[in-house]
Amino acid sequence: MGRYARLFTLLCKLSLMRQMAYRPHFFLMVFGKVIRMVLLLLFFQAVFLKVDRLGQWTFDQVLLLFATFHLVDYIMSITFQRNLSYGLPALIQSGNLDSRIILPIHPLFMASLENIDMMDFISFIPCLGLLIYALHRLGFAFTWLQAVMYGLLIANALVFLFAVVLIIATISFWTTRSTGLARVFDDLTRVGRYPLDIFEGFWKFFFIYVLPLALISQMPSQALLGALSSGFLFYALACSVLLAVIAVRFWRTGLKNYSSTSS
Amino acid sequence: MMRKALSIFRLAFMERSAYRVNFILEISGGILSILIVVFLWLAVYRSSGRAELGGYSLAEMITYLLGGGLINSFLLTTAENPETSQAIQDGALSNMLIQPITPYWVWLLRDLAAKAFFGTIGLAGYAIVSLFLSERLIFLFDPLRLILFGVALAAAVVLQFLTFESLNLLAFWVENTYGFRFTLRVIMEVAGGAIIPLSFFPGQLQTVFALLPFPYLVYFPMRIYLNKIEFAEILPELVRAAAWMAGLTGLNVILWKRGLRRYTSMGD
Description:
The structure holds two protein chains of two kinds.
Chain A: H1 2-19, H2 23-50, E1 53-54, E2 57-58, H3 59-78, H4 81-94, H5 97-101, H6 107-113, H7 118-137, H8 144-170, H9 172-175, H10 179-189, H11 201-210, H12 218-224, H13 230-257
Antiparallel strand pairs in A: 1-2
Chain B: H1 2-17, H2 20-48, E1 52-53, E2 56-57, H3 58-76, H4 83-90, H5 92-97, H6 103-133, H7 143-168, H8 178-191, H9 203-210, H10 219-225, H11 231-262
Antiparallel strand pairs in B: 1-2
Helix pairs in contact in B: 1-6, 2-3, 2-6, 3-6, 7-10, 7-11
C-alpha cells in the first residue's frame, strides 16, 4: 500500500511539472474553470430570482447540491475520468498499453491514475469554499452522523462513477474507440447538478433506478439535510458495490482480449 | 478563387463526415444537455405557478432554449478553429504560406465548413427533438423576420470566428492558446445568452454583457425569432454587430501581419 501511495505522489509531481510547463496557460485554465463555476452559480441565482423553490428544494439546498456535485465531479476529473475515458482508448489504439501492463503494479492503477489533473486540483479549492459557504447558509444544521453519511455517500458516488467510466472505457478493447460514449455519459452526469424534482414520472424513476445518477450528489445532499431514508442509503451502497464488481470483471475480460496491435 | 474556395470547403466538410458514429454520439450528448435544461425550466415554470417568467411564456422559453442550444452547440462551440494556432506552433504554417491562397482564408473556409457540417447534423437532431416537443414550440412564419434571423445568424457565425481567431493568432506570441479559448468560451456561453435569455440576469450584469460582442451570438438572433425585438430596433443592432465585426477584422489583420513578421519555423 505504501508503494502505491509513494507512486501516487510521484505521479502528482510529474503531472504538476508537465502541466506547469506552460505556466500562463495553467493559470488561465484554472481561471476559466473558476469563472465557469461562478457563472453557473449566477445562472442558479437567476432562476431563483423567479421562484422560491425548485420542487422541494430551496436556494440554499440547491447550493449544497451544486457544491456537492462539483466536489464529486472535480475529484473524478482530477483522478480517473480523463485517464480512463480518453487516455485508455488511446493507449489501446496505439498499442502503448503494453508498456503499462508490464510494470510491477496493478494495471488498473496506472490506467486510471497516470495523469493527475493538477489544474482541476487548484480549481477544486474554490469549490470547497463554495461547499463551506453553502453549509454556512444552511446554518451548519446537521449532526455528526449525517456528516459521516455525507462523506460515505460521496465516496460511494465516486465508486459508482469509477465503475461506469471503467465499463465504458473497457469497451474500447473491442472497438478501439469509445470516446463518443464517454462524452454522452459526461453530458448525462450533469443531471446530477439539478434536484431530481425537476423530473417527473418516468424520468425520475429512470434516474433513480435505471441509471441512478441520483446517487452522485442528490443522495449525499439529502443525507446531510436529514432527508434520506435508510432504504435509499442501502440501495445507493448496494448499487455501487454491484456495479464496481461488474466493472472490474469486465475490465479483466477486456484485458485478456487485448491483442496489442500497434503500428 | 471561387473554385479554390469551394474545394477547400468541400474537403473540410468531407473530413468532418469521416467519423460518423462518434459524431452521432457526441451530438446526442449535446442534445441531451439541452433537454436536461428544458426539463429544468419546465420545473421552474411549474414551481412558480405563473404563465410567464422574465417576459417569456413557457413555449417561448423552450423554443429559446432549443434554438439557443442549437446555435451554441452546433455553430459556436464546436468550431473554434484550433488549426490556426496549431499550424503556427508546429510550423505547418510554413508550408501553407507557399501555397497560392492566403492561410487566413483557408482557415475561414474550413471553419465555415465545420459549422455547416455540425449545423446540418444539429438540425437533424433538433428535428427529432422537435417532434416530441412540437406542441410547446413556436414556429416563425413571417418571411421578413426569417430573413433577418438568417442575417443575424450569419453575423453570429462570422463574429464567433473573428473573436476566436484573434485568440488563435496569439499563438505567434504565446506557446499555448487553449487557455484563452477555454475561458472565452465559458464567458461566451453565458454572456451570449446560450444558457438563458439575458433578461433573466440582474440589471448590472445585463449592462456589462451589453458592452461585449457576445449577445449577438445567441440572444440577438433568438430575440428576432421570438418577436422580442421590434423591427425598428433590429437595424441599429445589426449596425452595431457590423461595427464589432469591422473592429475584430482590424484586430485580426494587425495580429496576422505583426505575427507573420515574428514567425520563425525550425525544421527537424
